[in-house]
Recover the amino acids of this structure.
């Protein structure tokens, strides 16, 4: 395992120390005198090592971004990140890592550390791992230069009125997927066409800030939420490069499209992260990175201010290291948004987001017979549920036809993306694309940089001839098919939820508009993580969190990736 001392020698002395010392001078130092924090390296060996990977999507053409200089991301905050100091970092590590939001809040209330120290702790980790060639994940796309000041304000409020009731997200550092509009930072969706797009806050970001959350920065994603290239690596974007999995960089996929949200949680770069899903984009990276991920019922969380694929299926959702943190983050983002026609004013009684009972006794879950036969981790998880008092009924789902899925996404994005660009772009000179056709034409000007894996999905939108009436028919038919896929078992066996793995049945849940929660269930023989996924009917998020908390308690499966435990 790489040591902290090795990191100090290779990074701090070469870059951070130089920035800190120059920052102390009275006269500004020329940029040429400052040692870079990151120097791009020849990645030929890494690419060759993956050239014959059994997973064709992992036969990378590049890993480092050809567009973004990491020094532009990390240099402005370098002194702030280092101000915590190594000794204080080590003292805080055991108090913070592996602990839930309620536990962190209790320790802050007892004076063991402050919100500012919590924020600096995660910045310190980001710099430690993301600026080291041995451990970088290409996860961070932007950092909020106001994050520490926001944490100080949280400390001041706590000191001035310690007994004032506050939402548990108060003072907690949160990372956002870079298709979520965030004031003060670009929102790129990973695309060069949006490189200089600086919009106002999305509705869910406003909700987080109103409750006192600290927005720490933006994270990488599959470009255009993986509705861009066909058969290309998940977790790749032109802006961020190839996101890597901390459990096995270049060995395991990161999952997509919320790859940076998943990797940032696995490596503990913040307390919580926000992802988005159309079909599997939260469930997939949650499973691949051994974190808890919730795809809510469409409408529970606002989508306004989020770069869209499909107004029919899109939703943001929380990604965290524990179920209780997941519920807290979900609750913090909720609220009725009049700008989102699918928004609902979901209100559940009490502190539903803090599971107060983890009992699984008497719960009824459906298990896919095929997975019970083929997946040993799934069988183990089912056994743990049964040992905890749940009843699990094996079933075979009906054969249903999801033909039309791509035309649905094509038809929605053809309309939804122009609407987003028209209503959310502030600087029309900085962002000149106005349609899918504009994005395709823009990328054709420099395909090696802007679209090295092609742009097959976007070109498919342009080629799709489905009309508005046909699109509505597809949506109605697919929703019926998705619900039939699950509802036969729900009704026949009086089930509370259906059990899946990772994003295996995400497409059916997506078109049914059903919520799904993934919870770590263990690791394959080669070390690859996997999640047990609970799927329920609409607006059953409180029940899903209870089921997830119960399984989490009996399985205790999640482990931090070995190289990121320091």
């Amino acid at each position: 395992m790489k040591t902290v001392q090795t990191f100090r020698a290779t990074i701090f002395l070469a870059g951070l120390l130089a920035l800190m010392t120059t920052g102390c001078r009275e006269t500004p130092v020329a940029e040429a005198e400052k040692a870079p924090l990151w120097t791009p390296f020849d990645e030929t060996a890494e690419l060759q090592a993956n050239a014959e990977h059994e997973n064709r999507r992992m036969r990378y053409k590049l890993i480092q971004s050809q567009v973004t200089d990491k020094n532009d991301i990390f240099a402005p905050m370098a002194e702030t990140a280092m101000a915590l100091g190594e000794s204080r970092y080590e003292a805080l590590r055991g108090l913070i890592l592996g602990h839930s939001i309620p536990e962190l809040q209790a320790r802050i209330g007892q004076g063991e550390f402050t919100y500012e120290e919590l924020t600096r702790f995660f910045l310190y980790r980001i710099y430690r791992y993301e600026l080291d060639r041995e451990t970088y994940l290409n996860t961070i796309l932007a950092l909020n230069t106001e994050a520490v000041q926001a944490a100080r304000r949280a400390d001041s409020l706590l000191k001035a009125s310690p007994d004032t009731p506050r939402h548990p997200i108060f003072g907690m550092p949160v990372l956002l997927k870079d298709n979520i509009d965030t004031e003060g930072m670009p929102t790129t969706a990973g695309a060069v066409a949006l490189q200089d797009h600086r919009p106002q806050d999305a509705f869910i970001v406003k909700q987080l800030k109103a409750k006192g959350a600290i927005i720490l920065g933006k994270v990488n994603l599959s470009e255009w939420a993986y509705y861009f290239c066909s058969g290309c690596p998940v977790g790749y974007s032109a802006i961020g490069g190839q996101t890597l999995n901390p459990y096995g960089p270049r060995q395991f996929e990161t999952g997509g499209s919320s790859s940076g949200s998943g990797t940032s949680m696995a490596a503990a770069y913040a307390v919580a992260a926000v992802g988005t899903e159309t079909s599997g984009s939260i469930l997939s990276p949650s499973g691949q990175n051994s974190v808890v991920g919730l795809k809510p019922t469409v409408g529970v969380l606002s989508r306004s201010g989020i770069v869209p694929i499909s107004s029919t299926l899109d939703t943001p959702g929380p990604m965290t290291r524990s179920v209780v943190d997941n519920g807290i983050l979900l609750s913090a983002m909720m609220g009725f948004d009049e700008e989102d026609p699918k928004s609902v004013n979901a209100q559940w009684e009490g502190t539903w987001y803090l599971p107060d009972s983890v009992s699984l006794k008497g719960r009824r879950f459906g298990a896919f017979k095929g997975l019970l036969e083929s997946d040993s981790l799934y069988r183990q998880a089912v056994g743990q549920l049964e040992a905890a008092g749940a009843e699990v009924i094996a079933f075979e789902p009906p054969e249903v036809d999801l033909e039309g899925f791509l035309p649905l996404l094509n038809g929605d994005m053809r309309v939804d993306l122009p609407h987003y660009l028209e209503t959310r772009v502030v600087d029309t000179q900085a962002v000149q694309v106005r349609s899918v056709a504009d994005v395709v034409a823009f990328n054709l000007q420099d395909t090696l940089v802007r679209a090295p894996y092609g742009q097959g999905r976007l070109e498919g939108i342009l080629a799709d001839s489905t009309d508005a009436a046909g699109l509505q028919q597809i949506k109605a038919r697919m929703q019926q098919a998705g619900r039939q896929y699950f509802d036969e078992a729900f009704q026949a066996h009086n089930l509370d939820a259906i059990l899946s793995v990772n994003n295996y049945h995400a497409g059916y849940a997506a078109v049914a508009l059903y919520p799904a929660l993934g919870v770590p269930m263990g690791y394959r023989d080669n070390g690859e993580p996997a999640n047990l996924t609970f799927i329920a009917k609409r607006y059953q998020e409180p029940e899903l969190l209870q089921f997830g908390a119960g399984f989490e308690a009996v399985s205790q499966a999640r482990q931090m990736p070995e190289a990121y435990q320091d």
